[in-house]
């Protein structure tokens, strides 16, 4: 099946006084229609920069793109060809912190309807035409979507200010807004990080159910492997700006091949054993280790790991970039 999103060999970064910092260096990733793909890795591995590249909203601090491509619903997001047309329509975004996305001075309903007016196909340059009938239809659609994300009394909720909603309610509103344009892909950037555990499970359940029901693909960035287990079909592991491993969910959790993935899984808390941390830190993009960027932390590193960069290879949809892959989980 043709991908809705394809990132191929993407490398980008920023200039420094001494050269170039490579924030992303050879990232590969695909998302097929209706699929939920988890993008996991430690803080600083490049997940948020990659989400910006996919949306065509890279920060100004990123000053060069050396090679690679980002194709999203037929648009070239790096060159900007068609990016405006797909952003907010074919692809939408759920932020990590929904509170920061609302203006605290206006009611939820005012802000939501402003957004609907902006998205109305009747809008013309220099003149906004938003008929009463269209406004009523949009309001009905908003209320139906708020019900779909299991928010009770949606009409009353629209009258409230952002601070009157709980974190879970605000994130449900964000999910509703992301799904309203009937997108083909939703990028969810750590959408449950700011929520407590029980609310997290509810939000993940709502997101998974609606994505499956509506056939929407989701790219779900997270550092929480438990959340990835809950909702993902496939998982992509990033390390220091590179793709380390791509695997179907079951294989990822039972038969990881990349040493970094194996160590990540061993660091999960589990009944009956203490989690074991990964020694060392994620390297800075200003001075990443040569060849395999994981080699200073890897228990399996040999000479070739320090001199030759491993390429992404494998079979049957399970890919990994490692000179010495192993199968199975590590013992505690
Ligand atoms: Fe470890 Fe070498 Fe594989 Fe890198 S290539 S993850 S250093 S074994």
TrEMBL record:
It comes from the Bacteria. Pfam families: ABC_tran (PF00005), oligo_HPY (PF08352). Residues 7-265 form the ABC transporter domain. One of its GO terms (cellular component) is plasma membrane. It is found in: Cell inner membrane. One of its GO terms (molecular function) is ATP hydrolysis activity. It is a peripheral membrane protein. The keyword Repressor does not apply. This is Oligopeptide/dipeptide ABC transporter ATP-binding protein. The lineage of its organism: Bacteria, Pseudomonadati, Pseudomonadota, Alphaproteobacteria, Acetobacterales.
């Amino acid at each position: 099946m043709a991908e809705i999103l394809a990132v191929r060999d993407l490398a980008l970064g920023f200039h420094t006084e001494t050269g170039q910092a490579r924030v992303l260096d050879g990232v590969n990733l695909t998302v097929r229609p209706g699929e939920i793909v988890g993008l996991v890795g430690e803080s600083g591995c490049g997940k948020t920069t990659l989400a910006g590249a996919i949306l065509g909203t890279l920060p100004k601090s990123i000053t060069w793109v050396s090679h690679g491509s980002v194709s999203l619903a037929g648009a070239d997001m790096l060159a900007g060809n068609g990016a405006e047309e797909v952003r907010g329509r074919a692809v939408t975004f759920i932020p990590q912190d929904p509170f920061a996305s609302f203006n605290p001075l206006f009611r939820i309903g005012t802000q939501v309807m402003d957004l609907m007016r902006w998205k109305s196909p009747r809008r013309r340059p220099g003149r906004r035409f938003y008929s009463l009938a269209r406004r009523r239809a949009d309001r009905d659609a908003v209320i139906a979507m708020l019900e779909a994300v299991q928010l009770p009394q949606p009409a009353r909720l629209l009258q409230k200010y952002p601070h009157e909603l709980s974190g879970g309610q605000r994130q449900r509103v964000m999910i509703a807004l992301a799904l309203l344009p009937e997108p083909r892909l939703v990028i969810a950037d750590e959408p449950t990080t700011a929520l407590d555990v029980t609310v997290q499970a509810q939000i993940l359940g709502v997101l998974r159910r609606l994505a499956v029901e509506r056939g929407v693909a989701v790219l779900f960035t997270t550092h929480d492997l438990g959340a990835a287990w809950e909702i993902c079909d496939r998982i992509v592991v990033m390390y220091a700006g590179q793709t380390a491993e791509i695997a179907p969910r079951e294989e990822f959790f039972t038969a990881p091949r990349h040493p970094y993935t194996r160590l990540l899984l061993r660091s999960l808390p589990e009944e009956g054993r203490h989690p074991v941390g990964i020694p060392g830190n994620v390297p800075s993009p200003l001075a990443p280790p040569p060849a395999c960027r994981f080699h200073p932390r890897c228990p399996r590193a040999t000479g070739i790991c320090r001199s030759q960069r491993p390429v992404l290879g494998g079979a049957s949809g399970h890919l990994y970039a490692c000179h010495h892959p192993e199968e199975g989980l590590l013992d505690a």
